[in-house]
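Reopening: C-alpha cells for the beta-D-fucofuranose complex, inputs below.
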Amino acid sequence: MKKNLVVIAAMAAALCMSVTASADEDLITIGFAQVGHESDWRTASTQSCQDVFTEENGYDLQFVDCDNDSATQLEAVRNFIEQDVDYIIIDPIVSTGWDEVLTECEDAGIPVIVIDRTIDDSDKYAAWVGSNFTTEGLACGEWLKAYAEAKGIEEINVLVIEGTTGSSAAIGRTDGFAEIAEREGWTILDSQDGDFTQTGGQEIMESYIKSYEGQFNVVICQNDNEAFGAMDAMTAAGISYGVDGDVILVSFDACTAGLEYVQSGDINADFECNPLAAPFVEEVIQQLEAGETPETVVYMEEHWYVNEDILESITVTVDGEEQEQALTVVTDEIVEAQY
Ligand code: GYE
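Re-run output (same inputs, fresh job):
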C-alpha cells in the first residue's frame, strides 16, 4: 500500500513537471536589456515591460539592468543569444556601436525590437518604438521664445544640463533646442552632461553657479531628475526659479514628481516623454508571431505641460513640416493619472 502511494506520488510529480514544462514551452521568451535605473522615467519604463510581459500574458521575461554601462549591455544581448530567447528588446544606452551584435542576433534568427532611444549605426532590427527627441528639443525652444515674448523678457542666457553623452535622447534634445537658440541669437553659456540623474543635475548646477552666478536666466534640464538636483543646488545658493523666480526652469519627461513641480510653479514647463512603450512592443511581437510585418517606426503620444495659461499652443517645424500642439496646464487629475 505504502509502495503504491509512493509510486502514485512520483507519477503525480512527473505529471506536474511535464505540465509545467509544456506550459513553459508555450511561453514566448523575451530578453530585455534595459539602460539602468537612473531616473523616474526609467522606473516607469521597466514597470511597463514587467506589467505587459507576464507569464499570465504568455511571456517569460528575462530582465537585465545594465546600470548605464554599454559593455554590460552588449554582454546582456550576447547572453540572450546564447539562451536562444525568442525576442530581444534593447533600449540602447548610446546610439552607436551596435552593428556587430545586431548581426549576431540576425544570424541567430532572433528578432530585435528597439525601444525609446535609437540605434543610429545599424538597421538590423524589426521595429523601434519611442519618442522624437529632436522634436522635444525644438518644442522646448519654441515654447521659450513664445514665453519670453509674453513675459517681456528680452535677453536669454541659458545653461543646459544634458542627459547621458552619446544617448540619442540627449543628442536630439540638445540639437533641437540649439537650433532655436541659434535662430533667435540666444546665448548658451554652457551645456554639460548630468547623466540623467538627480545627483548629476545637482553637481553640474553647483559648478554652473560657481562659474556663472548672476549671468543666466534659463536652465534647461534634459530630464526631471536632473531638474530636481538643479533645484536643490539653486535653492541652496539662494537663487529663485520657476514661475515667480529669476530663472526659468524647463524639464523633459513629465513624470509624476516633475508634473507636481510644474503645478507648484517650480518648473515652468515640462516636455513629456512617454515611457509606456510595452503595449506597442507587444503588438509588434504578436504581429511577428502571426507572420505579419509590423510598423518599423512607432511614435509614442506625448503632451507639453506648463504651469500658466498664457500660451495656447506651440508650432514646431520638423523636417520641413509644421506641427502645432496644444500646451496643457497641469491639474490634479493629470498628476494623478501620470506614471
Ligand atoms: O528622458 C531619462 C532617462 O531615454 C528618454 O532616459 C529616455 C531618457 C529619459 O533616464 O529620464
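Confidence is low (pLDDT under 50) at residues 1-22. The radius of gyration is 23 Å. Marking as resolved unless the reporter disagrees.
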